[in-house]
Specification:
The chain is mainly alpha-helical and 114 residues long. It is 39% helix and 9% strand. The protein has one domain. It binds zinc ion. The site of zinc ion has 8 residues, from loops.
């Protein structure tokens, strides 16, 4: 089983600025198409919890320093001093987490949730 395809589909819709653009998209249709395309190419779509703190964790050292307002787009980790773009850092954390989930799915040890 190849689990190289990932998807996080649970945006934070309480944010007013994001709510409109999110409401313009049919998430059910998007997920359905992603699953169809993934299956066609022998891949699998992995969803993660909307509560996974992807933007709160340093992708270099793993330090978690809590929530930040959405307007904070960059940060410096207080532990390892790495400079992070919020979205790039979150993407790295989601990728790392989905790799762990993929291994857990393959080995039958999945079930640990955030
Ligand atoms: Zn760090």
């Amino acid at each position: 089983m190849d689990l190289g395809f990932l998807c996080s589909i649970f945006p934070k819709v309480r944010n007013q600025k994001l709510a409109k653009s999110i409401s313009d998209v049919s998430w059910t249709s998007l997920v359905s198409k992603l699953r169809y395309k993934a299956a066609r190419y022998g891949k699998e779509v992995i969803s993660i919890s909307r509560w996974f703190p992807s933007s709160q964790i340093c992708s270099d050292c793993g330090h978690k320093d809590g929530k930040k307002p959405l307007h904070v787009r960059e940060r410096i980790c207080p532990v390892c001093l790495s400079h992070h773009d919020r979205d790039v850092n979150a993407a790295k954390n989601i990728l790392a987490y989905t790799r762990v989930l993929a291994i857990q799915i393959q080995t039958g040890t999945a079930g640990i949730a955030w």
